[in-house]
Amino acid sequence: MTKLNRYLLYAGFDKEEIQQLLPEVREENGRCVRIYLGISAGVFFACLLMSFLAGGALTANQLTYTVMVVISVLLYACARLLLPARPSLSTLLSILYMLSMYGFSFSVSLAHGTIPATAAVAILLVMPALFTYKPIYMILMTVLAIFGHFWLSTLAKPMDIALLDLWNSLFFGAIAVLLSVYLMQTKFRLLSQKRKNKVLSETDVLTGVKNRNSFERKRAGYADRCKENLTCIFVDVNGLHELNDSEGHESGDIMLKTVAHAVVDHFGQADTYRIGGDEFVAFCLDSTLEDIRGRITKLIRETGEKGFSVSVGASLQTKQELDMDELVKQAEHYMYIEKRKYYEDIGHNRRHVKAQ
Length: 356
Fold this sequence. Notes:
Layout (H helix, E strand, L loop, with lengths): L1 H9 L4 H6 L1 H33 L7 H21 L6 H23 L7 H8 L8 H22 L2 H44 L9 H7 L3 H4 L3 E10 L1 H8 L1 H19 L4 E3 L4 E7 L3 H17 L3 E10 L5 H21 L7 E4 L1
Parallel strand pairs: 4-5
Antiparallel strand pairs: 1-3, 1-4, 2-3
């Protein structure tokens, strides 16, 4: 029973693993919902045109096609405008898309009350495979769709046709349920592997912080993330090469790990990067100069207490005048000023923060 619950609730994964995969799930569902909505808008518009040109029985679905074109276009516009800033909305938009498709299939089925439903059965079979959710959610949606369709059929169709619709829905719905359990497990496994590959490609193996590849990919996004200002903190480890030469690379590795952990402690894992052999960059959003100076002072003191030394430079710019290249360049410039002072007078560490 426990194993069954694990498959139904978490597609064979642990609850913690599913939670970690949420960003990838939202990104995947967001990508899919944009594609499906774009295709649906085009298909329903083509069907609407054909119904006007062909006439006859096809005209019975004109209102349905019109409504679906409007819904598809509106949801697509929402997906394009809202998802880049709020990926979590991909869940709501994908559910709305599926509900609209169920509604379309029910409408077509009821418009042709003398024949068994075909569109409803097809939609019922396809929907669970389109997006990535916990299997139990797809199962519940499928069950509700089956009985919702049957209830509407009993109101608008002869009982023998309604019962045939129920049988077809139950048969193909069962297939959809089995497929959803298998497909969700496969999808989550692929997303898990994708996440691992991404983490490996963007993480410095030695220190565990983000690497230069991640820095180059994410630096531009800070302009959108900050509300008032952004500070770049540039940290260089003093004496790394000398330590490697005198005591070996193992001692140098310990130094780098110690400094990396200290930078993370004061500026956060999400915004800390190792961009070179002995260089780290961190970003701090919407902080005051006093706060930045305080963090830098603690960083220098704590690394010093552990027997190591760092040179730190920082630069702050407001959101209105933010230039990421210039911001990083200024912080690096002030770091080099501190580094020269260090080599001129060992043990004398000062920070230099400039605000613009």
